[in-house]
Write a structure and sequence with these properties.
Elements (H helix, E strand, L loop, with lengths): L6 H37 L3 H15 L3 H15 L7 H27 L2 H9 L4 H31 L11 H12 L2 H30 L6 H4 L10
Length: 234
């Protein structure tokens, strides 16, 4: 017996939207820290660290995010018998790993987009590497990073729907459940689509406003290319 679409079904979808936002925020936080580290390694002067960072980024970008989700959810318990990860944290970890590779490329590209004279001026002032990055390079790189960074966040929001395959009730999974309960798939998925649109539009609008405050107009092509899938230009 099917149910009529009502408030409790809308509430389930809204709860799923909250979960989607939560896991994406956590993925950006954790992946951002990891991506910043790998980005600095990639833009540094130590050859081994550059190689290690490039290898990590190439591997993660070359693997579908769905495979990363499966590996974290099913693979980690196999590698560490007796342990298990909840669906929620499996999704967060998988998306964090996925985000870290792309954020690393954004960081690397943004640092390399800073004029070389800024590096030389910071060195002439006698600043250590950490202080050069903190006070001179990264503040300028952040302006270049904003436009492609916002674009990647929108992609991450939509790709987060893939965690539904491990049973996490996020926005897409909630829509599937409501569709099964009410036998109204068109209405259910229209609501889900509207929720994704609102989240992504709000994020894009906030990004454009921030760009105006920073005076950012045109993203650097080299940084935008960081979002291009590996092998797309071959």
């Amino acid at each position: 017996m099917f149910e009529g679409l009502g408030w409790k079904h809308l509430s389930l979808i809204l709860d799923g939207a909250v979960v989607t936002v939560q896991i994406c925020v956590l993925a950006v936080l954790f992946g951002g820290v990891l991506g910043l580290i790998f980005g600095l390694m990639s833009a540094g002067n130590i050859r081994f660290l550059r190689w290690f960072s490039a290898t990590y980024v190439a591997i993660i970008r070359g693997i579908p995010v769905l495979l990363i989700i499966f590996f974290v959810y099913f693979g980690v318990p196999l590698l560490a018998p007796g342990t298990s990860l909840p669906e929620y944290w499996s999704g967060v970890i998988a998306l964090s790993v996925f985000a870290s590779a792309y954020i690393a490329e954004l960081v690397r590209g943004s640092i390399q987009a800073v004029p070389r004279g800024q590096f030389e001026a910071a060195e002439a002032l006698g600043l250590r590497y950490r202080d050069r990055m903190r006070w001179v390079i990264l503040p300028q790189a952040a302006k270049v990073m904003v436009p492609p960074g916002v674009g990647f966040l929108v992609i991450l929001i939509k790709d987060s729907s893939l965690v539904a395959v491990i049973g996490l009730i996020e926005l897409t999974r909630a829509g599937n459940i409501v569709s099964s309960l009410t036998a109204e798939p068109i209405t259910s998925y229209l609501i889900v689509g509207a929720c994704y649109f609102v989240i992504c539009y709000a994020l894009s609008a906030a990004g454009r406003r921030y760009e105006r405050r920073l005076g950012v107009r045109v993203p650097t092509p080299g940084v935008t290319d960081a979002l291009t899938p590996t092998g797309a230009n071959t």
